[in-house]
Design goal:
Strand 1 and strand 2 form a beta hairpin. This protein has 9 helices and 10 strands. The strands form 2 sheets. A 6-stranded mixed β-sheet has the order 6-7-8-3-9-10, sandwiched between helices. It has one domain: P-loop containing nucleotide triphosphate hydrolases (Rossmann fold, 3-Layer(aba) Sandwich). By secondary structure, it is α/β, with parallel strands linked by helices. Helix 3 packs parallel to helix 5. The site of adenosine-5'-triphosphate has 10 residues, from helix 1. The site of magnesium ion (MG) has 4 residues, from helix 1.
Length: 241
């Protein structure tokens, strides 16, 4: 469960990148975070993960406040940032063992989990190479694997499908489903409306820092025409705002 209460953030005076946002992402659900470029999705995600501090409001992850108890809160989630270009000089295998060390994953568990995750993302063959030599999608996958090694209860993913090939995207969606079926939570931003429509239990739509809508696809349709596509609804919602 992730809970944001009245969260605001400005980078420059008078312009709110995130404006009084309240949102609860319950356990057992996949929640998609949608909005145009510059809407405030990454800023929100960076505040949830403790990378940025909000100007006001509070954020808790499974009841732990990210600002008051950052370490405890950070143990609860796995985070994949929007740009996977980091630790480029490490080999894949070194990066995974670094991540496992940080989260204190015991040796026998880390071996088993990384083997399984690498198998699902078809990354076994690349682990001995430097991340610098990876394609964008491969970098995305190694960061994903690293973020999931400690089996976090909450997944927070900023545009995780970008650059993934269809098989890997399918594997990730399947894993998201399995994760929430075991009572955990997934919160991810995306521009791919078809994915949001098919995969998510709920979607949150943000524009200019303000939450425009939060609910199930059925809730959305109840507000609009019954057989309207999410694409049309999205265009309409973000145009009038
Ligand atoms: N480091 C920064 N310094 C100043 N302004 C910033 C910074 N990061 C983001 N912004 C501004 O905050 C607003 C929200 O940006 P944010 O990156 O959160 O959008 P987003 O919804 O993730 O967009 P995208 O879909 O393009 O990833 C934008 O107006 C952006 O210009
Ligand atoms: Mg972004």
């Amino acid at each position: 469960m992730i809970e944001l209460v009245n969260v605001s953030k400005s980078y420059k005076v008078g312009v709110k990148a995130v404006d009084n946002l309240s949102l609860a992402i319950p356990s057992g659900e996949i929640v998609g975070f949608l909005g145009p470029n510059g809407a405030g999705k990454t800023t929100t995600i960076k505040m949830i993960t403790g990378i940025l501090n909000p100007d006001s409001g509070s954020i808790t992850i499974n009841g732990t406040d990210i600002r008051q108890e950052p370490l405890r809160a950070k143990q609860q989630f796995g985070y994949v940032p929007d740009s996977p270009d980091m630790f480029l000089r490490l080999k894949g295998v070194e990066y995974l063992s670094f991540m496992a060390d940080i989260y204190g994953v015991p040796g026998y568990i880390r071996k088993e989990r990384s083997r399984e995750l690498c198998r699902r993302f078809e990354m076994e063959g690349a682990l001995g190479d430097a991340i610098q030599s990876y394609s964008h999608g491969m970098r995305q996958k190694i960061v994903l694997i690293g973020a999931l090694l400690h089996d976090p209860k909450v997944w927070i993913l900023d545009e995780p499908m970008t650059g993934l090939d269809p098989r890997s995207a399918f594997a990730l969606k399947e894993m998201m489903r399995e994760h929430v079926q075991s009572g955990k939570a997934v919160f991810f931003s995306t521009h791919v409306l078809e994915v949001a429509e098919k995969l998510c239990d709920k979607v949150a739509i943000i524009n200019k820092g303000r939450l425009q809508f939060y609910g199930t696809m059925q809730d959305i349709r109840a507000h609009f025409a019954e057989n309207e596509s999410l694409e049309n609804i999205f265009l309409e919602m973000t145009e009038h705002a």
